[in-house]
Amino acid sequence: MEQFDAIVVGAGFSGLYMLHKLREQGMSARVYEAGDNVGGVWYWNRYPGAKCDVESIYYNYTFSDALYKEWTWTTRYPDQPSILRYLNHVADRFDLRRDIQFRTRVTAAHYDEKTRAWQVKTDDGKTVAARYFISGVGCLSAANRPDIKGLDSFRGEVFHTGTWPHRPVDFTGKRVGVIGTGSSGIQAIPVIAAQADQLYVFQRTPQYSTPAADRPYDAEHMREVKENLGEIRTRIRDSWSGVPRSPIAMDRSALAEPPVQRRQTYEAAWQHGGWIHSSYNDLITDAQANETVAQFVRDKIRSIVKDPQVADKLTPDYLFGTKRPVIDTNYFQTYNRDNVTLVDIRQDPITEITPDGVRTAGTEYALDALVLATGYDAITGPLFRIDIRGKDGMSLQDKWAGGKEIHTYLGLANAGFPNFFTITGPQSPSVLSNMVCSIEQHVEWIADCLCHLRDEGLDTIEATVAAEQTWSRHCAEVAHTTLFPRGESWYTGANIPGKTMPFPIYVAGVNVYRGICDKVAANGYEGFALTRSGTAR
Ligand code: NA7
Known about the structure:
- It contains 16 helices and 21 strands.
- By secondary structure, the chain is α/β, with parallel strands linked by helices.
- Helix 1 runs parallel beside helix 14 (435-455) and helix 14 runs parallel beside helix 16.
- The strands form 5 sheets. Strands 1, 2, 3, 4, 5, 6, 17 and 18 form an 8-stranded mixed sheet that branches.
- The chain has 2 domains: 3-142 and 378-536, FAD/NAD(P)-binding domain, CATH 3.50.50.60; 151-372, no CATH class.
- It has helices at 13-24, 41-44, 65-70, 80-93, 183-195, 219-227, 229-237, 247-250, 259-272, 287-304, 308-314, 381-384, 396-399, 435-455, 465-479, 510-522, and strands at 3-9, 29-32, 100-101, 106-112, 117-122, 127-135, 157-160, 175-179, 198-203, 209-211, 326-328, 340-344, 350-354, 357-360, 364-366, 369-372, 387-389, 420-422, 460-463, 528-532, 535-536.
- The chain binds ligand NA7.
- The site of ligand NA7 has 21 residues, from helix 5.
- Keywords: FAD, Flavoprotein, Monooxygenase, NADP, Oxidoreductase.
- It is an enzyme of class 1 (oxidoreductase).
- Its EC number is 1.14.13.92.
- This is Phenylacetone monooxygenase.
């Protein structure tokens, strides 16, 4: 059986950097990747209009000055082709591909207590062994194909935004249906509307979305940025979300300002584009403050959408930001087009999909193509697709009661699963942060940890049950100081029938979180049991 120091799953931002760090430290590693090239979620997410909503200059690695200097982003928000080009460049620049096995899915990883190694099985029928098993599967990589009666009978083409084909898709002259209005749907809808003959949008829940105000970066700005990576890195790391914010905006309460001034602040944020919820410091902790921004966005929707009945259907009534907020390019404007019809499937539910289209209780919509913008089995979904078993054959799925009870230490490690690390795992800042910032932090922490084990001649590291309980409790306590757990969203599995999760994200901020992780390491990996040749330390 082939043996490695580490096996890494996934060749997205996490897996690529993890591989680079492992190599730098002289460790042998193999990355398994299901796709036939690098990119992770950005390899699969090729739907029309796919973009990241973290600004380009922050949504990239900051570990290498040379890499930062040689890459030039051309627009404020990076689109999917640019991100994929960037990750291909990283893979080539650091010569990563030779340790990545593409077109291979990891199906199982079992910890063998006798050899203190992970046995990793892949769908090509092989098994390899490694001391460390590292997940870089991401949080949004298990596509949610909805279980709608008759879906397989549809005669036209069916696409999922998360597994878009790698060939051009042309909707010209076609009648297209889009189910779902999350980030993916909201990005795709204006682009598809401009191409298709008719577009029908099947909306279950309306969204708060604000303009991205995407624009080209000018050359002078990029030059300055490249000269200042050190400062940018510090601002990223010192922020709450991994995206630097204006400190002036962040230290004010929305309720402390008179309504006229508050509206001016929101208007300025709306015009500037991007995340409006960082305008004040209590929009996500105080329901009354939250209502001020929610009402502002509702008014905007009503002012943009000409048909008041359509505007009503598009207007959300829940807490702002508890469902992942979205930024868009001409989303609400798209409903003013003659070729776009909004179908509110809460009022008029889809009863089935027929060979010819979508049938609701009231109407039949004839379609040539159907786009499922129905999101992901998020956060736990990608991990549960692998049969991960720790000591005594315990599966991760059982340990977390199918996701109903998540217990981790720092969102990085699990009691009962020695030498297993989850990059951006549940109970870390993950999807409520700039993922690249959180990935770099986790990868560097894991790499330092593995060096420590090697230098000290230690075989295993395993979270203690006590540390895990304390962390999970702390995570929940912090979450409940915010409004996040009150929302119905993929954060808690509300989008998947039968799935419920405790709120799985550590929301004290990437700055606070980094400090905690660093302290754990500085204190000799406090909260972990470290073993050498069978003895616990
Ligand atoms: P999201 O944000 O989960 O959006 C999925 C959308 O699909 C959302 O509007 C869902 O409605 C809708 N949906 C899901 N299942 C169904 C069924 N069965 N019937 C009708 N409508 C359905 O996924 P995205 O891909 O847009 O974005 C994921 C993340 O990627 C995003 O947040 C960013 O972090 C990047 P619901 O709201 O559940 O009622």
